[in-house]
Amino acid sequence: MGSTKTDNSSRTESPEPTPTQQPSTPQHGKMTSPVKPVNLLPEVPTTTSRRLSPKEQRDCEVIERLIKSYFLIVRKNIQDSVPKAIMHFLVNHVKDNLQSELVTHLYKHDHFKDLLQESEHIAVRRREAAEMLKALQKASHIIGEIRETHMW
């Protein structure tokens, strides 16, 4: 019952957990995260078999903050890469294959008559352009005749 024996036993690691210590099983009930998303990993047990020195405690806190920062950066990178992956695989695939699909549907023989028929609006514009061309050619011919008659 010497005091040195109890001091030594408190400093050494005991293989069996004491009644105040919890076994090293994951705590599924407590899942916290620094941000809104759900943390699916169980929390690491904080109980140890020996007391950490203040320096070791600070080092553990720094390491914990660094790991959390690292995972936040990784999460942000994944969030940024998802739209890029969608663009790469889905949109570019559609862009590359859309023309061939449209051409395939365009060259069906039963659609030729409908596709080659001129729309009424375009026919009207074509007739107006042809009339304008005739009028401009006639005006050019008249201007050419006027120049020739005034020259002599």
UniProtKB/TrEMBL annotation:
InterPro entries per UniProt: Dynamin (IPR022812), GED (IPR003130), GED_dom (IPR020850)
Pfam families linked to this entry: GED
Spans annotated as Disordered: 1-57
Record domain GED: where: 60-151
Domain of life (superkingdom): Eukaryota
Descriptive protein name: Dynamin-1-like protein
UniProt source species: Limulus polyphemus (Atlantic horseshoe crab)
